[in-house]
Structure formats: structure tokens, C-alpha cells
Amino acid sequence: MKQNTIRRNKSVSRSAFTLLEVVIAVAILLGSITALFQLLTLGHRSLTQAQFRTDAVLLADLKMNEAVAGIITLQSTSEDESEDYPGWLWSLSVDDAGVDDLLQVTVTVRREATSVAAEHEYSATRFIRDPQIFLDAALGEES
């Protein structure tokens, strides 16, 4: 009778997972979820930084074009808050370029560090002819 019982147990196939297999599967699942979460966090951080870099370039270009067009006065200014881009500060530096009638205009935009992103700063420089020369020439022709 003992032989029948032993044979029967050997021929029965296993129908459940062992505890070790379940623990390994759960560990693999948790590792995968952690890796995906890290990738999502990294992607969000990169998206935020790219958006801030784009905003910095657009604001610097906007202020430079306003300065060249005469919408804002062409003189050095300290940091001023932008109306078009809240949270951004901009400054204008106008220096002599070392050549007659040529000015070096530099626009610097900056955003303070926040909990979402680090501090961002961008500068754009352009060399332009001194607009005062054109004004003097126009006044000279009228006289």
C-alpha cells in the first residue's frame, strides 16, 4: 500500500507557484515600476528646462528687437521684470564697441530658481549703428 501512495505523489504535477517564484516576480515588477517612474521624472525635468531655455531666447530676442526699433530707450538698464513673461527679469547693456558710430547692445534675461527648475540665464549681443547719428543727420538736413 505504501508503494501506491508514493507513486501517486510522484505522478501528480505541481499546480501552484512557490513562494520564491512569487517573491522574485514581485521584485522584478517593483524594479520595473521604479525605473519607469525615474524615466518619467527625468523627462518632465528635461521638458521644463527646454521650455525655460526657449522662453529665455524668445524674451531676449523680443527685448533686443524692441531696443533696436526704438520702442525701449537704447540705454543701459538694471533688471526689470518682463510683462510678457512673468517671473523673468531682463536687463539691457549698451556699450561703445570700440569703432566709431557702433554700439554693442547686450540683453540678459534671467529667471530665479524655483522648486521646479534651476536658475536660467541667457544673453544676446548685437552690434548696431548709433541711432543718434541718423537723428543728427536728419536734423542737419532740415536746417
Number of domains: 1
Radius of gyration: 34 Å
Order of helices and strands: HHEEEEH
Based on CA inertia axes, which overall geometry fits? rod-shaped
Strand share of the residues? 15-25%
User: How many helical elements?
Assistant: 3
**Whole-number average pLDDT?**
87
Helical proportion, percent range: 40-55%
Strand order, largest beta sheet: 1-2-3-4
Q: Please provide the count of β strands.
A: 4
Poorly predicted regions = none
Cα(first) to Cα(last) distance is 131 Å
Largest sheet: 4 strands, antiparallel
**SSE class:** alpha+beta
Question: In words, what does this structure look like?
Answer:
By secondary structure, the protein is α+β, with helices and mostly antiparallel strands. It has one domain. Helix content is 51%, strand content 24%. The chain has three helices and four strands; from the N terminus they run ααββββα. It has a four-stranded antiparallel β-sheet. β1 and β2 form a beta hairpin. The mean pLDDT is 87.
